[in-house]
Amino acid sequence: MASIALTVATCLPPGWGRWVANRRTQAILAQVLGAVALVAIAILLTTTLIGNLARLNLTTGFEFLWRPAGMKIGESVFPLAPSDSFAWAVVAAILNTIRVAVAGIVLATIIGTAIGIMRLSSNPLLRGVTTVYVEVFRNTPLLLQILFWSAILLKLPAIRQAISLGDWAFLSQRGLQLPSLMLHAGVALWPGAIAAILCGIAAFLLARRRNRAAAIALGVLAAILALLVVWSAQGAVGVERPVRKLFGFTGGFTLTPEFCALLAGLTAYTAAFIAEIVRGGILAIPSGQWEAARSLGLRNGAILRHIVLPQALRVILPAMTSQYVGLVKNSSLAVAIGYPDLFWAISTAINVTGHAVEGVALMMVCYLVLTLGTSGAMNTWYSRMIRRGAR
Predict the structure, then answer these.
(1) Residues 6 or more apart from 228 whose CB is under 8 A from it?
(2) d(Cα 272, Cα 276) in Å, to the nearest integer?
(3) What confidence category does residue 18 fall into, taking pLDDT thresholds of 50, 70 and 90?
(4) Which residue of 167, 177, 326, 328 is most buried, as measured by CB atoms within 10 A?
(5) pTM for the complete prediction?
(6) Residues 270, 327: contact at Cβ < 8 Å?
(7) Closest Cα to residue 109, out of 312, 272, 284, 310?
(8) pLDDT of 211
């Protein structure tokens, strides 16, 4: 760029030549030319796309989202009929994706953190077992793992021979049947709501001086416990257990085999990477921290919990954020086992309506919102932790 600018400068009047030979001017010209090139490419691609769609007699727009979907999603947070629109089907699929992503993030964090700590154990058997787990699940394709878990769940006993877990839960080819909470009509709910608000505020005020984030979590937990205790004493809430019938189960709620297989695959795969992140974060803390804490008489568990892990979080969290975002994106592999997630719903809409461009664009926007939301939440937490540590 500099040589071109000098060549042009020699062909211009003296005043213009010095202006073109200026480095800042060259940088501005380079950005302008780059922007013009990008706009030209975008116009060319758009014109080509519009021409091809017109040649194939295909319409554009997102009005297809309001047409009746004509399909029924077997697993949905809210009831969905075939007469509902594609838009509602996409919303239900997004909620399915969020549900499996949140559950996977929580379970993968717990399991991965525990395995990462156990890999540093002095017990050779424990260290060897966790090492094998990490190497196996980290170095095999995620799609293969999801298909593996799906095949195992489909080989479970039929409903009549379902594995009973104390008559409170059943495991069969239909999935995992679990008890559910249910509200009884005709019972006043306001005493429980008042107790939950008061207990939540009290727990938050008592713990806010030590850690604001922990105080919020403690307040929410106290509010939920108070709500359940008061409603249970009133008889307003009860537990509905699943009951085995001849051809199925009644009562409770069901985790389908597709959901369980996808959740197991995402959790096991992501936990292996999180384990290595946690192990690396702990090893990044100087050994003098351990020695100084032991000289004060602290045990290894207390040292890890109160001294090492709080410092290791600065190393762990940025890499952990990438794993969370990856888990959200990897949930799109649910289409391989028939779980009705976002990718499945929009792909079905594309096959039915033929609006491939709009469908792919909508899919990209939805996944972009989910991943940016996950990344933004983690970055906000990390920034607050850094500011609090700098005080």
Answers:
(1) 237
(2) 7
(3) low
(4) 177
(5) 0.78
(6) yes
(7) 272
(8) 64
Please, are residues 125 and 133 in contact by the beta-carbon 8 Å criterion? no
> Strands, E, within the chain: which ranges?
163-164, 170-172, 175-178, 180-183, 237-240, 243-244, 249-250, 253-255
Nearest of 272, 378, 270, 370 to residue 327 by alpha carbon: 270
CATH number, domain 86-142+267-390, options 3.40.50.300, 1.10.3720.10, 3.40.50.620, 1.20.140.10: 1.10.3720.10
Residue 248 near residue 206, CB atoms below 8 Å: no
Q: Is the pLDDT of residue 266 over 80?
A: yes
Q: Which amino acid is at 388?
A: R
Three-class DSSP labels, the chain: CHHHHHHHHHCCCHHHHHHHHCHHHHHHHHHHHHHHHHHHHHHHHHHHHHHHHHHCCCCCCCHHHHCECCCCCCCCCCCCCCCCEHHHHHHHHHHHHHHHHHHHHHHHHHHHHHHHHHCCCCCHHHHHHHHHHHHHHHCCCHHHHHHHHHHHHHCCCCCCCCEECCCCCEEECCEEEECEEEECCCCCCHHHHHHHHHHHHHHHHHHCCCCHHHHHHHHHHHHHHHHHHHHHHHCCEEEECCEECCCCEECCEEECHHHHHHHHHHHHHHHHHHHHHHHHHHHCCCHHHHHHHHHCCCCHHHHHHHHHHHHHHHHHHHHHHHHHHHHHHHHHHHHHCCCCCHHHHHHHHHHHHCCHHHHHHHHHHHHHHHHHHHHHHHHHHHHHHHHHHHC
Could you report the per-residue pLDDT of 103-126, keeping only the tens digit for each? 999 999 999 999 998 988 888 898
| Nearest-angstrom CA–CA distance, 376 and 372 | 6
